[in-house]
């Protein structure tokens, strides 16, 4: 026998050289034709269970917030709507009267006078407060000496209690011995004259809120890219042109937020008015709608009528906010890159 006819002793066999592979649906070592991964029915069932688990987990995460919204936002609205159709004096049991409270409030001239006083207050406060806050914010972002100290000073009235500020300003406005008349050398009835009462209350409100407004405008001015301002300067734009053509358009999101929150707080103003004029001013000249609501509920003990006023104020604020949102929606951008 020759050497070429001998079988190779140390050569690996063909089966040993072939690696073992397993593909989905291929027979396994035990001979099963299908595995759990390759079964379409099992795969669909697993996907459905994963989706259910994700949905349950999502609802579980938002459940605390939903409870807060339902308990502290939606439920009070429902209760006020229910009270607006009840006769209740805070002592006896509520009695169903249907729409009688609505008819009484809508036919009450003092309610419409309070609404006009509130609109006059908003017309005085909002433009002055917004423009003054924007001007102050523009100055404080220029890096002038003492800007940091002035930022603190402007915000101080906003962080103070409005009722305490009202009491202090009540003393300042006193016709005899008041600081303002002593300083001016006059004897003006700032809070007793119907012509000066509402402007005086509006002035105190503007003084206390202008720091809050300027704070947000400073934040809006700080995020405007400096490259845009520098490019406008290189092109020869004046500071006035830069302010009106670049800064104001890019401040529209901030302007929208400031106007919405300022108008809502102005319609709901109560504590400052109560601190300055506890009786609603001479001839009801400072009897804003929130003061009228307080007077109806806790002085006249007519909770049903007060609830009607609250619902009307709520609907009015929602409509005004929707109008503002419609105006600003297509006129502002949040992309400053």
UniProtKB/TrEMBL annotation:
Q: State the UniProt keywords alphabetically.
A: Cell membrane, Membrane, Sugar transport, Transmembrane, Transmembrane helix, Transport
Can you name a GO cellular component term?
Answer: plasma membrane
Indicate the segments forming the ABC transmembrane type-1 domain, all copies.
Answer: 115-324
In which residue ranges is the amino acid composition biased (Polar residues)? 15-24
Residue ranges crossing the lipid bilayer per the database entry: 56-83, 115-140, 152-172, 206-229, 250-270, 303-323
GO BP terms: namely: transmembrane transport
Protein name, per record: Multiple sugar transport system permease protein
> What species was this sequence derived from?
Leucobacter exalbidus
Q: What is the lineage of its organism?
A: Bacteria, Bacillati, Actinomycetota, Actinomycetes, Micrococcales
């Amino acid at each position: 026998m020759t050497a070429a006819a001998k079988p190779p002793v140390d050569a690996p066999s063909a089966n040993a050289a072939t690696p073992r592979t397993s593909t989905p649906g291929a027979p396994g070592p035990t001979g099963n034709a299908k595995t759990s991964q390759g079964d379409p029915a099992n795969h669909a069932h697993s996907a459905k269970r994963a989706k259910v688990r994700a949905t349950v987990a999502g609802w579980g995460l938002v459940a605390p917030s939903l409870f807060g919204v339902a308990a502290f936002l939606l439920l009070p609205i429902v209760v006020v709507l229910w009270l607006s159709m009840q006769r209740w004096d805070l002592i006896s049991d509520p009695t169903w009267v249907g729409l009688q409270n609505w008819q009484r409030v809508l036919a009450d001239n003092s309610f419409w006078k309070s609404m006009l006083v509130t609109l006059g207050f908003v017309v005085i406060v909002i433009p002055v407060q917004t423009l003054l806050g924007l001007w102050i914010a523009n100055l404080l972002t220029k890096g002038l000496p003492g800007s940091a100290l002035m930022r603190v000073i402007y915000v101080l009235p906003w962080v103070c209690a409005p009722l305490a500020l009202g009491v202090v300003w009540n003393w300042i406005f006193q016709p005899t011995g008041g600081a303002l008349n002593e300083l001016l050398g006059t004897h003006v009835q700032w809070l007793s004259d119907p012509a000066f009462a509402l402007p005086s209350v509006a002035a105190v409100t503007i003084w206390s809120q202008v720091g809050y407004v300027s704070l947000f405008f400073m934040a809006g001015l700080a995020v405007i890219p400096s490259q845009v301002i520098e490019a406008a300067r290189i092109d020869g734009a004046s500071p006035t042109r830069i302010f009106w053509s670049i800064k104001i358009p890019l401040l529209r999101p901030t302007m929208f937020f400031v106007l919405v929150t300022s108008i809502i707080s102005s319609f709901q103003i109560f504590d400052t008015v109560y601190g300055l004029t506890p009786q609603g001013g001479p001839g009801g000249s400072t009897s804003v709608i929130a003061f009228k609501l307080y007077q109806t509920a806790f002085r006249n003990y007519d909770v049903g009528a007060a609830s009607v006023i609250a619902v009307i104020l709520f609907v009015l604020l929602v409509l005004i906010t929707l109008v503002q949102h419609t105006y600003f929606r297509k006129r502002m951008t949040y992309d400053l890159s």
